[in-house]
Amino acid sequence: MMRERFISTTTALLDEDPRLAVVLADISASGFDAAAAAHPDRVVNVGIREQLLIGATGGLALAGMRPIAHTFASFLVERPFEQVKLDLGHQGVGAVLVSALGSYDWPAGGRTHMSPADVALLDTLPGWTVHVPGHADEAERLLRDAAGGEGLVYVRLSLQSNAVARPITPGRFLTVREGRRGPVVVAVGPVLDEVLAALDGVDATVLYASTVRPFDSAALRAALADRAAADVVVVEPYLAGTSTPFVAEALADRPHRILGLGVAREELRHYGTMADHIAAHGLDAHSLRARITTWAGLR
Q1: Quick check: helix, strand or coil at residue 14?
Q2: Which of 65, 64, 57 is nearest to 87 (CA)?
Q3: Mean pLDDT, the chain, integer
Q4: CA-based nearest residue to 1, from 38, 31, 22
Q5: Which residues pair with 100 in a beta bridge?
Q6: SS (HEC) of 118-169
Q7: Phi-psi sector, 28: left (phi>0), alpha (psi -120 to 50), beta
Q8: Residue closest to 174 by CA, chosen among 162, 183, 186, 163
Q9: Can you tell me whether residue 28 is helix, strand or coil?
């Protein structure tokens, strides 16, 4: 799974790069026991103190380190958002935030462990790169790129996964399927398999986004270049419509329509399984097919 790959990859990176440090808030701490023994000064567990997690991350960055902070998404972005804004963004430092349990991964954890608005929140701040891998192999590729780079990077991990990894390039959309007249569908991270199943036999182009910020406007415009109508569907595993402003900006010079599909704003007050929540938000293949083809007039 992605979180296990994050732990093993980051452990290896600590051996490879003395600039790196890991900051934890109890979550996944046992997975870093060996790394902490090998690098006691570069694996820091602050306990269940998420604001301190980000504050310590900012301090390490100011000291010239490349810190990687990790906990569940709701505790990494939402709870310490003021620290994310001030201790990282306002200070002008670079860091990598790696989350787990995104929008609906652990329903039994309740609303406190769900964060469908994390990417939308980061969109209120400038300069963030946001990766949403759909497979553990992609998570490793994107994590290594983030750790070796500069600036502020958010890597959003999930229990939901596509069956196979794709040959991704950080920052670029990948064309997975080409259609001629139907809509261009941007599938973000782990929803790709459901999107491909939904569009089986449908004339549509599918772009795969494992990086959503910066938004690959050039790839979207290229996919729409020969179409008279610019119909775009974005399917995201977090708050519906999060990326629609970026689509609108990319297509500001031509008429277009956008359908944003993702997690509903209304709170789903049930437990069940991750699959139950995916279906309840209309992100399963059957629901996606009905929603996309009806909107695009393909039924």
Answers
A1: helix
A2: 57
A3: 97
A4: 31
A5: 72
A6: HHHHHCCCCCEEEECCCCHHHHHHHHHHHHCCCCEEEEECCCCCCCCCCCCC
A7: left
A8: 186
A9: coil
Contact in structure between 81 and 53 (CB atoms under 8 Å): no
Compute the distance between CA of residue 182 and CA of residue 193 in angstroms, rounded to an integer.
Answer: 19
Dist CA 215 CA 164 (whole Å): 23
> Parallel, antiparallel, or unpaired for β 174-177 and 152-156?
unpaired
Residue 45 β-bridge partners: 24
Q: Crossing angle, helix 136-147 and helix 2-16, to 10 degrees?
A: 30
Q: Are 256 and 232 in contact (CB under 8 A)?
A: yes
- What's the token pair of residue 172? 């670029």
Rounded distance, CA 109 to CA 147, Å?
A: 30
Q: How far apart are alpha carbons 66 and 199 in whole angstroms? A: 41
pLDDT recorded at residue 229? 84
Rounded to two decimals, what is the model's pTM? 0.97
Report which of 173, 138, 188 is spatially closest to residue 6, judged by C-alpha positions.
138
- Report the pLDDT value the prediction gives residue 299, as an integer from 0 to 100: 67
Contact 191, 156 (CB under 8 A): no
Q: Tell me which residue has tokens 């604001």.
A: 51
47: left (phi over 0), alpha (psi -120 to 50) or beta: left
Q: What is the pLDDT of residue 241?
A: 98
Pairing mode, strands 184-188 and 205-209: parallel
